[in-house]
Design goal:
Blueprint lengths: L6 H5 L6 E2 L4 E5 L6 E5 L2 H17 L22 H15 L5 H14 L5 H8 L4 H4 L6 H5 L4 H16 L4
Antiparallel strand pairs: 1-2, 2-3
Amino acid sequence: MSTGARAEELLGGRQCDADPGQQLIGVVRKGSRERQDLPAAPDVFVWLRLYQQQTWELGVPRKPGLPQWWTLRRPWRPLTYHAARAMLVRANALLGANWTLHDLRHTASYRMARDPQLPLTHVQWVLGHAHLSTTEIYLNPRELHQAGEKPQVAWRREAERVRRVYGLAS
């Protein structure tokens, strides 16, 4: 969730794509197919290292160009989107939740878009959106929607407020 990357972008990563010293994780973007280094929280690298250590002790292959994420059962296979989704479905059943992998991206997106210290154009870059209008979707203030206002009206008004704050053209 920390990077705001799509699940399939993260799952496509290689063992050499994480740079803890710079706090960056490299992904290949869905739209452009270009590699992009995304900032990640320090905790991400702690948990990643713990995961790596566990998998290497189990015998998962260790080489910079190999996939970062693996199934934990033999035969070792790269972890696919569908396998990660199935894992989350099982966790949801245990917890009585209804999360999807994409919900993690949406949560990060909402948090970034609401951070007054983070310009919306930076959020756009991190999310890999070609158009700012796509990023503006994450400006939906839930309290306005809960007050009975139609979401589209709330989105438009909040997007206009952000445009004024950041001096963006309408």
